[in-house]
C-alpha cells in the first residue's frame, strides 16, 4: 500500500498541474514570451515560482493534516485510505467537467496578466490610488498560492497524508506531490514557450481532449485504489 501512496502522490501532483485553470495561468506567461514581453529565463523563473507557490499551499494543508492526525483516533488512516480513491475519481470528473470553462479562464487570466505596473509586480492600492508593494517575490508565486488554496489539491493532500502509516511516509508524500507540481508546471511552460505558445488558444479541442485523458487517467487511478482497498 505504501507503494501506491507514493505513486499516487507524484501522479496527483502532475495531474493537478494539468487542470484547465492551472494550465491557463501558465499559458498566459508563455504567451508573454511569444510576444517578446519577457525573456525565456524570466518565463522559467515565473513558472517555477507559480509552482512553488502552489506547492506551498499544499504543504501547509498537509502539515495541518499531519498535526491533526496525532489528535485523531488510531484508525483514522484506514478511513483516509478509503477516501483517497473517491477523491481521485472526483478530481478526474471535475477536470473533465471544467473543460467547458476553459475559454472563460483564459480570458480572466489575460485580464490579470494585462494589469501591469512599472514599479511593483505585486501590490495593493491605497486610498489615493498609490501602489503599496507587498513583497519582493514574483506575482506568479502568490497567484500559485491562491490557486492551491482554492483548488482541490488540498483535499487530496490531506487524504494522502492521513492515509500514511507514519510521519516519515507523510513527509515523503508531501515532497513527492510538490515535486510533481513543480516539475509538471515548469516543464509545461517551457515546452509551450519554445514550441507553440498559442496552442491552447488556437487548438482548444486538442487541449480539451488532452485534459479529458488526464481526467480519465485520474478516475482510473481512483478505481484501482478502491479495488486494492476492498478486494
Protein described:
- By secondary structure, the protein is an all-alpha fold.
- The protein has one domain (2-114, 136-230).
- The protein is 77% helix and 3% strand.
- The chain has ten helices and two strands.
- It has a two-stranded antiparallel sheet.
- Helix 1 runs parallel beside helix 8, helix 2 packs across helix 5 (102-113) and helix 2 crosses helix 8.
- The radius of gyration is 19 Å and the shape is globular.
Could you write a compact summary of the structure shown?
The chain has 231 residues and is mainly α.
Q: What's the shape?
A: globular
Give a count of the beta strands, DSSP E runs of length 2 or more: 2
What is the C-alpha radius of gyration, as a whole number of Å? 19 Å
Number of domains: 1
Q: List the total number of helices.
A: 10
Which spans have pLDDT < 50 for at least 5 consecutive residues? 109-136
Structural class: mainly alpha
Task: Note the gap between the termini.
Answer: 13 Å
For the sheet with most strands, the description reads: 2 strands, antiparallel
